[in-house]
Design goal:
Elements: H1 2-14, H2 23-34, H3 52-55, H4 59-67, H5 91-102, E1 130-133, E2 138-140, E3 145-153, E4 160-168, E5 175-182, H6 189-192, H7 201-208, E6 211-214, E7 217-220, E8 246-251, E9 258-259, E10 268-272, E11 277-285, E12 291-293, E13 296-301, E14 308-309, E15 311-316, E16 329-336, E17 341-349, E18 354-362, E19 368-374, E20 385-393, E21 398-405, E22 433-440
Parallel strand pairs: 10-14
Antiparallel strand pairs: 1-13, 2-12, 3-11, 4-9, 4-10, 4-13, 5-8, 5-11, 6-7, 15-22, 16-21, 17-20, 17-22, 18-19, 18-21
Bound molecules: heme C.
Length: 450
């Protein structure tokens, strides 16, 4: 009996299941790969996870955050789609962090530490060809969430094809995320290429009559028609909202530059017209003290016009009405394909009452493929979901976007459940918009210089 017990103990001691899980050997590799892009000194996450000393007090919090999948931030239902930037932790990594905490969150031998990842501070693609900034040194008030729009004139003297762009926060501690968009377009090469996003002047005037500007921010008028389901029938006025404006680049914690030259051969680029106005929409978060910010975007010019311009198709329904207290209000918008296109990326956007978002590709014969499902939308994380392989959307098919909104008192983020809510720029109003990156399936313009 005694010998048996000893033999068993010996076995346990050498079996890997009982070898201590340590920070240096087991946990640091996970953190370096999945966390420190945001959790390192100078970045906006609240603490660094680069070394044992700073990570140790957060051991339990890390376990909770990874077990609940609150961290790393990633909201796509893993059952649908494959994404290049999928941030989900492997189950085995979560188990390792749990085992580390259960074993006393030991440091282990520093010699086991992997090399620290290297980060390029500043422009990661080198000096840009043009830089546009927000036009002022903005004093960020010490408040939890500040959403601020800066509209400035771009300084481009002529329209340019752009192969990449990067937004650099002026103050990394203050800036949580940034959306950059073009808001006025001249007729440039992109306009000359016929797309199903082309709309006439009459549409703009009709749409404009339903909107008003309050304190510089646009909102739909109370008198505007109500259309929750823009996919039903002809969708009415909601389908007049164009597909042609929108966000061009984003800065998100941990995300790199926007590279449009997808194949690295100059065949894909994005057009920025001369003299356009641009908008920086900045979320300043978690400020304990007042800080100054001057955020910039750097543009990298393409050396030639591309065979395939990269288009951002915005799917918006701006005419919904979410009743006061409604816990699961459905709003839809469809996008009909009039030519074959490739879908590259999807970014859902709603405000505090956004609850979930679903994207289906509905084929001409009625078959449905789920492209992306975001079951728990979170306004704080404006994630872009980049498809691993572009999805071919055939002429005759359509994308159906379905959002639900929670305007009840059970929604902790809800600023006011007693009011019916409609479209507006203010965070306290709502939006139902999706930015998709698409590419013509076949090149439309002849290659220049071939
Ligand atoms: C994309 C950037 C990003 C990545 C990647 C990321 N975090 Fe975070 N994390 C944040 C930010 C920002 C906060 C603070 C705001 C918040 O809690 O949402 C945070 C907060 C936390 C917190 C505090 C949560 C709380 O409840 O107070 C923990 C713990 C944490 N992260 C752990 C991790 C771990 C572990 C990983 C990797 C497995 C990770 N994070 C990856 C950005 C990130």
């Amino acid at each position: 009996m005694r010998t048996f017990t000893l033999a068993l103990l010996g076995l346990l001691a050498t079996s890997s299941a009982f070898a201590a899980t340590t920070f240096s050997k087991d946990v640091a590799p996970i953190l370096y790969k999945n966390c420190v892009a945001c959790h390192r000194p100078g970045e906006m996450a609240p603490m660094s996870l680069l070394d044992y000393k700073s990570a140790r007090p957060w051991a339990k919090a890390m376990q909770t955050a990874v077990a609940s999948r609150k961290m790393p931030p990633w909201f796509a239902d893993p059952r649908y789609g494959h994404f290049q930037n999928d941030a989900r932790l492997k189950d085995s990594d979560i188990e390792t962090i749990k085992a580390w905490v259960a074993g006393g969150a030991l440091e282990g031998d520093r010699k086991d530490l992997p090399p620290q990842p290297k980060f390029v501070e500043g422009w990661s693609l080198g000096e840009p060809d043009a830089v546009i900034d927000i036009g002022e040194d903005f004093t960020v008030p010490a408040a939890r969430d500040v959403y601020k729009d800066f509209v400035v004139q771009s300084n481009l003297k002529e329209g340019r094809w752009v192969r990449a762009a990067q937004i650099l926060p002026g103050n990394r501690r203050a800036v949580h995320h940034v959306h950059f968009s073009l808001i006025e377009k001249e007729a440039g090469p992109e306009a000359a290429i016929k797309t199903d996003a082309t709309h006439g002047v009459g549409r703009r005037a009709l749409e404009a009559s339903h909107f008003e500007t309050v304190n510089g921010l646009s909102r739909v008028k109370d008198s505007a028609p109500v259309v929750d389901n823009a996919c039903a029938g002809d969708g009415g006025i909601a389908n007049l909202s164009g597909f042609d404006e929108g966000s061009m680049a984003t800065m998100l914690p941990g995300k790199g530059p926007d590279v449009y030259d997808l194949f690295g051969d100059g065949s894909v680029a994005k057009y920025v017209p001369a003299g356009s106005k641009v908008r920086f929409q900045i979320h300043y978060a978690n400020n304990k003290d007042s800080l100054t910010d001057r955020t910039r975007i750097g543009l990298y010019f393409a050396s030639r016009p591309p065979e395939r311009p990269l288009k951002r198709v915005d799917m918006r329904n701006r005419y919904f009405l979410i009743p006061a207290g409604a816990a699961n209000h459905e709003v839809k918008r469809c996008y009909q394909l009039e030519s074959d296109k490739l879908l590259l990326a999807i970014t859902p956007h709603a405000h505090y009452r956004g609850k979930d978002a679903l994207y289906e590709l509905v084929h001409a014969d009625g078959r449905r493929d789920v492209l992306l499902s975001v079951p728990n939308y979170d306004f704080n994380w404006q994630l872009q979901y980049k498809l691993k392989d572009p999805v071919l959307m055939e002429k005759g098919s359509h994308i159906e976007a379905t959002f639900h909104f929670d305007n009840s008192a059970n929604n902790r983020a809800n600023p006011d459940s007693s009011k019916a809510i409609r479209w507006g720029d203010r965070s306290e109003d709502e939006m139902m918009v999706t930015w998709t990156e698409t590419l013509d399936a076949k090149p439309q313009t002849a290659a220049v210089g071939n």
